[in-house]
Write a structure and sequence with these properties.
Elements: H1 2-14, E1 21-31, E2 34-43, E3 52-60, H2 63-73, E4 78-79, E5 85-89, H3 90-93, H4 98-106, E6 115-119, H5 124-129, H6 136-147, H7 155-165, E7 168-175, E8 181-190, E9 193-197
Parallel strand pairs: 1-4, 1-5, 5-6, 6-7
Antiparallel strand pairs: 1-2, 2-3, 7-8, 8-9
Helix pairs in contact: 4-7
């Protein structure tokens, strides 16, 4: 009976147990000596219903371990080719980003134009779960890149920069005083790790208002 009760909400989350679960965004946070990966799933119970985001999280010793744990929670496979954003918390970004970026570039299911961003002053999962519309985060990052408000750094450019000299710049986001997701400066990576923000803000400091 307990197993049946566990499977029911998962089946409802996916809409159809036999269908793959499209992922629109991912968030990576540090959890103890490992990490927690949160996936924003595209939920659409029937063709007539509007698509809405629904989040699911799992932990692991590494990104790949957490990803496999996520896949184990769902009756269908994760469909990663729709993922457009990867959010990193400040703590997760303090680890060398190069191996993860290279892994994602090698994965045929991951878009090379996946947008990567650092979340300031809070968990990456909190900002992801604040997203009320599918692809709202990617739209925000696309607009900010077009206007020059934030750096235009899709996954393939981030990887190229890190492999060249370990230095890269990524856009940064935070929740403003109204609880809305907003641009929050530029994150600087040195030797593959988050070192500072271009506005002079310290890692772990207060987020933008």
């Amino acid at each position: 009976m307990k197993k049946l009760l566990l499977l029911l909400p998962l089946a409802l989350l996916c809409g159809c147990a036999r269908e793959p679960s499209p992922v629109s965004a991912l968030a990576l946070d540090r959890a103890g000596n490992g990490c927690r990966l949160t996936a924003e799933l595209v939920r659409q119970d029937t063709p007539e219903d509007a698509a809405v985001p629904s989040c699911l999280a799992a932990q692991g010793d590494s990104f790949t371990d957490a990803l496999h744990a996520l896949e184990g929670l769902l009756p269908g496979e994760l469909y990663l080719s729709h993922a457009q954003v990867l959010l990193l918390s400040e703590q997760a970004a303090e680890d060398d980003l190069t191996p993860l970026a290279e892994y994602l570039c090698r994965d045929n299911d991951i878009r090379l134009n996946l947008r990567c961003a650092v979340v300031r002053g809070g968990a990456a999962s909190d900002l992801l779960e604040n997203d009320e519309e599918i692809y709202a985060l990617s739209d925000l990052l696309d607009r900010a890149a077009e206007t020059g408000t934030l750096p235009d750094m899709p996954l393939y450019r981030v990887t190229e920069a890190l492999e060249t000299d370990g230095t890269a710049i990524l856009p940064s986001l935070s929740l403003d005083r109204f609880g809305q997701t907003a641009p929050s400066g530029t994150a600087v990576f040195t030797e593959g790790k988050l070192s500072c923000f271009l506005d002079g803000g310290m890692i772990g400091g207060e987020r933008f208002a």
